[in-house]
Amino acid sequence: CMSLDNFDIGYLTELDPFWDDDELSFILNPEVILFGNPIAQLACVAESVKTSAGSSLPIDALFWCMGSQGSAYPLTGNTTYRDTPMQSAVLMAERLNYKLHRQGIVWESLGTDGAVCYQHPMPILPKSRYRYQLSNVIPNATNCYPYGTTTAIWESGHDNPVTGDNFGFVQWRKRNCVFL
């Protein structure tokens, strides 16, 4: 592919005032009113059940859902879902990726015809094109999980009680390319 973007591994949420403030984030994401409520979250049950098998892809049409992790909204680093530290960490990683898509920082390569080889902005996260892999505290190099997959099937033994809730993930993205 002819990629015009540069390789970048860093996004400092500490410098982003919208990441830690739900009310301030509302300015950039007013749709939280539609999707950040219990009624809209009922639709997420279907995705949660589908992705709980561990190998099924999430439902891209339910863009406000993050499968078994919870809601994509608000697009901040705050969560009320605190079942396990690993589940919260996965949810934060998925939300951050959605936020970067929403702000036009991460672009998409999915397209039709001539657009296949060129990247374009996509403000809605294409969840089915992403996988994550645990790299820190206790790495899991043998498995990549689709977005929304429940952490209950693999998180046992990966939480280190000494170092706390500091996890690292490698995120993989499928890209459509044409060999020229």
Describe it for me?
The protein is an alpha+beta fold. The chain has one domain. Helix content is 23%, strand content 11%. It contains five helices and five strands. The strands form two sheets. Strands 4-3-5 form a three-stranded antiparallel sheet, covered by helices on one side. A two-stranded antiparallel ribbon has the order 1-2. Strand 3 (130-136) and strand 4 (145-146) form a beta hairpin. It starts with 21 loop residues before the first helix and ends in a 7-residue tail after the last strand. 29% of the residues are buried.
**Poorly predicted segments:** none
Reading the helices and strands in chain order gives HHHHHEEEEE
How is the largest sheet built, in terms of strand order? 4-3-5
Helix percentage? 10-25%
Q: Which structural class fits the helix and strand makeup?
A: alpha+beta
Individual helix count: 5
Please summarize the sheet with the most strands.
Answer: 3 strands, antiparallel
Count the strands?
5
Estimate what percentage of residues fall within beta strands: 5-15%
* Straight-line N-to-C gap: 8 Å
Integer tally of domains = 1
Rg over CA atoms: 16 Å
Question: Quick check: average pLDDT?
Answer: 83
Which geometry do the CA atoms define? Answer: globular
